[in-house]
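A reminder from the course coordinator: this example appears on the midterm review sheet, so study it carefully.

Given structure:
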């Protein structure tokens, strides 16, 4: 493998784990304790440009391999990550503060996606026949999907393994090289992932991690990459789009959400409460596809609130082994959570669990608010903390209307025994689970992404593979055309025959069968 790559020589990727003397650095901190987890270099615009240049050579080599050869590499990488899950989970625990068990769950889902992308790329992206139609019946038509070249990925801190790999793995499976800029809060995880793939490919810079702050991400946006995949806030996503527009670099944006869970009158209330609690509180509520709003049919509202309140009292935030959720990873988010909770209470909401006093300096205890005004920031803005706003609704029409009223449209859930799928189809979002929570994220064959201010483009599934390619259409003449249409020697007889064929094909008025 290495000898093949020697046709495109490049220096090996620089490691972000051991900064050289004199290089500007930053530290990643344990959000639970404030202890230093690691020291990493701040990659400059020049560093990013060099990484992209190295990736270009790697992309030439990688794109020249067969689908089966690329799958073999990716499945080996998948196995390396799987065997070292404990090591990666511990690093994630230290950089994000999330419990080790939650980090392990995230890694398990991520490696499953790597495997799916590796195994399905050939079927999804390889050449396939396309019907040529009667007018072009002499043509053999095919379409295939070619790699773009170098893909930039800017990843988040809340799910620093699963989320970026949803872009990285699919971009690699499609034949691209990747330059990855992880969050400054979780740089060590980005370095770890790149190092493990480098082990598999003998140091070839197929996946490079460039660490740094916002300026490093901005440099990646304006570099000579062929596409950028971004996950983060809507506000930052808009800045990313503007920066990428300088070079007309296409983007995939997975931005914020304010997802709702709908509970119909026939729902299993215990299961719905369990799902809402997990959707709202897991990872300390720092989940873009997590639950922040709950709309419950008024006939079962009191029973649902009693059930979820009882379950919530068993959940605690802390840094000890008995805590189910960890700290707020980014300190500035605590002020936003506090503001949202206080605003809801000031406007008449009731705290049935937690409340303003639940918001500490590093940890936020589970907070459940009911009868929250729809105009409050707890309803209209992304909170990104372990809080839930639960409101009664007259019927499912009102539940759908309120769910769709916001500017986001990422995900959501519905609990109903009879009408769950019908309700789900009415929700304006990219993803909805029925009688489950966030289940769509664990299905590798399903597309992942949103609408509105939640972004656009898709990762995961066939759509995710195609997102990092361009369609290549090819026609090959099988025999001389009966009508010589693409020539200046076209005759009146040819034109008359064409008009006759088109009229027969399309001129008659037909109705669709019911």
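Designed residues:
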């Amino acid at each position: 493998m290495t000898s093949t790559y020697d046709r495109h020589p490049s220096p090996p990727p620089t490691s972000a784990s051991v900064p050289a003397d004199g290089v500007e650095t930053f530290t990643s901190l344990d959000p639970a304790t404030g202890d230093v987890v690691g020291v990493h270099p701040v990659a400059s615009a020049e560093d990013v440009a060099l990484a992209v240049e190295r990736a270009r050579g790697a992309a030439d080599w990688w794109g020249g391999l067969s689908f089966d050869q690329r799958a073999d590499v990716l499945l080996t990488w998948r196995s390396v990550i799987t065997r070292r899950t404990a090591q990666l989970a511990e690093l994630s625990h230290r950089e994000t503060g999330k419990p080790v068990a939650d980090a392990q769950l995230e890694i398990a889902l991520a490696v499953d996606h790597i495997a799916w992308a590796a195994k399905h790329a050939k079927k999804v992206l390889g050449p396939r026949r396309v019907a040529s139609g009667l007018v072009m019946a002499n043509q053999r038509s095919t379409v295939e999907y070619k790699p773009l070249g170098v893909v930039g990925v800017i990843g988040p801190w809340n799910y620093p393994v699963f989320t970026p790999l949803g872009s990285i793995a699919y971009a690699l499976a499609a034949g691209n090289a990747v330059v990855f800029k992880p969050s400054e809060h979780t740089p060590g995880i980005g370095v770890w992932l790149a190092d493990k793939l480098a082990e598999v490919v003998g140091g070839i810079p197929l996946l490079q991690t460039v660490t740094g702050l916002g300026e490093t991400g901005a440099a990646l946006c304006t570099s000579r990459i062929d596409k950028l995949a971004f996950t983060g806030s809507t506000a930052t996503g808009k800045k990313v789009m503007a920066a990428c527009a300088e070079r007309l670099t296409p983007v995939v944006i997975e931005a914020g959400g304010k997802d709702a869970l709908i509970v119909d009158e026939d729902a299993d209330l215990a299961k719905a409460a369990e799902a809402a609690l997990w959707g709202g509180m897991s990872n300390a509520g720092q989940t873009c596809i997590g639950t922040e709003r709950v709309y419950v049919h008024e006939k079962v509202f009191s029973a649902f609130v009693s059930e979820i309140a009882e379950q919530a009292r068993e959940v605690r935030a802390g840094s000890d082994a008995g805590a189910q959720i960890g700290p707020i990873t980014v300190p500035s988010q605590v002020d936003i959570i506090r503001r949202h909770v206080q605003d809801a209470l000031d406007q008449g909401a009731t705290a049935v669990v937690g409340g303003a006093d639940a918001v500490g300096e590093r940890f936020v205890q589970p907070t459940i608010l009911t009868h929250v005004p729809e105009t409050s920031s707890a309803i209209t803005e992304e909170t990104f903390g372990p809080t839930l706003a639960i409101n009664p609704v007259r019927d499912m029409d009102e539940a759908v209307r309120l769910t769709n009223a916001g500017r986001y449209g990422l995900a959501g859930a519905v609990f109903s025994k009879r009408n769950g799928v019908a309700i789900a189809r009415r929700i304006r979002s990219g993803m909805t689970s029925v009688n489950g929570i966030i289940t769509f994220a664990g299905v590798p064959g399903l597309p992942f992404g949103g609408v509105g201010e939640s972004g656009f483009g898709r990762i995961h599934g066939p759509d995710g593979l195609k997102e990092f390619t361009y369609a290549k259409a090819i026609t090959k003449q099988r025999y001389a055309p009966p009508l010589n249409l693409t020539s200046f020697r076209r005759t009146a007889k040819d034109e008359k025959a064409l008009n006759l064929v088109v009229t027969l094909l399309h001129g008659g008025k037909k109705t669709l069968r019911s």
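The chain has 17 helices and 20 strands. The chain has a mean pLDDT of 94.
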